[in-house]
Design a protein that fits this description.
Elements lengths: L6 E3 L8 E7 L4 H8 L7 E7 L6 E5 L2 E5 L1 H4 L2 E5 L2
Antiparallel strand pairs: 1-6, 2-3, 2-6, 3-4, 4-5
């Protein structure tokens, strides 16, 4: 996922690339908690780095850093090319 205006899940976003949140899938407590923490449609988000084994990933959102498991990041749809 690297072309401008391409959407996909946050877990596939390369490090250093900024995107905008399109949606948070699911109705679970995790999805609700992510939205409470600011992962809402329209918010800019950037993957900072991944752990050595790939899980979790560190993202920067609204000037704070957040660690997400890949399964949680997979529920977040983002749009590249903002």
């Amino acid at each position: 996922m690297q072309k401008p205006s391409e959407s996909g899940s946050l877990d596939r976003l390369p490090s250093g690339l900024t995107a905008r949140v399109v949606s948070v899938q699911g109705s679970s407590a995790i999805a609700r908690r992510l939205m409470e923490m600011g992962v809402v449609p329209g918010a800019p988000i950037r993957v900072v780095r991944a752990a050595p084994l790939g899980d979790p990933i560190q993202v920067c959102l609204r000037d704070y850093h957040l660690a997400l498991r890949r399964v949680e990041a997979r529920a977040i749809t983002v749009l590249v090319g903002i």
